[in-house]
Design goal:
Elements lengths: L1 E3 L6 E3 L6 E6 L5 E7 L3 H9 L5 H4 L10 E6 L13 H22 L24 E4 L3 H7 L2 H21 L4 H24 L21
Helix pairs in contact: 5-6
């Protein structure tokens, strides 16, 4: 995905930026997760989407199969900044403030007024203006066809809810993880309800005794 670097005027791949904040969106265009990186955007997002040892995926907070689009807010002015740089603490405070702003926007955009992050970002120490974002699809048309069907998504989301519930039952966890469980369960209920109504809803439910035995063939 190309991006015009406003500091240089040059076009470059969005994933090549080192510092930035990103939002994941699902197949309904619903914001589901916000994260930050100061290593390289493509590397951080890639580990999420390929399930390579990120806490959010390992704890069943985020399911990579749910991610359809990403929106990235890069901070190109900090490309050369690392942990040994004199401006590192300032750069990190700007990154944290940007995450706070993007996180708040994602929550406001959500129909559930909630996303899957286990933690809320800390209050910002500096003021920051949102940079120009870039949003794009991260799956192929073939993958979209396989993953976007509501019945497939319902089954997958139910598995994630079950895994997250099991994790909570087996460990001492912070309340943020329980909030994530509530959010995922709410999203599952909404998706199942939409699918039910899509197929006709209550008017199409068959009538008959629930536990009636089939007498056909008996003498």
């Amino acid at each position: 995905m190309p991006y015009t670097d406003e500091t240089t005027g040059k076009t470059r791949a969005i994933g090549s930026f080192k510092w930035g904040v990103y939002i994941f969106y699902d197949y309904d265009g619903e914001p589901i997760y916000v994260g930050q990186t100061k290593e390289k955007i493509s590397g951080r997002i890639g580990r999420h989407l390929t399930n390579q040892r990120t806490d959010a995926v390992a704890m069943s907070i985020l399911d990579p199969f749910e991610v359809y689009e990403i929106e990235v807010y890069p901070l190109p002015q900090f490309e050369e900044v690392n942990a040994r740089h004199l401006d590192f603490n300032y750069a990190k405070s700007v990154l944290d403030a940007l995450e706070f702003a993007v996180h708040g926007r994602a929550v406001r955009e959500s129909k559930f007024h909630a996303i899957l992050n286990e933690k809320d970002p800390p209050a910002p120490m500096v003021e920051v203006a949102l940079p120009k974002p870039l949003r794009g699809c991260v799956v192929t048309l073939e993958v979209k066809k396989l993953r976007s069907h509501r019945d497939v998504r319902i089954a997958r989301r139910a598995q994630i809810v079950a895994r997250l519930g099991q994790t909570i039952s087996e460990r001492e966890v912070k309340n943020g993880l329980r909030r994530t469980l509530v959010t995922q369960a709410t999203r599952l209920q909404n998706l199942a309800a939409v699918r039910f109504e899509e197929l006709g809803g209550a008017a199409t439910v068959e009538r008959g005794a629930e536990d009636a035995e089939n007498k056909e063939g008996e003498s």
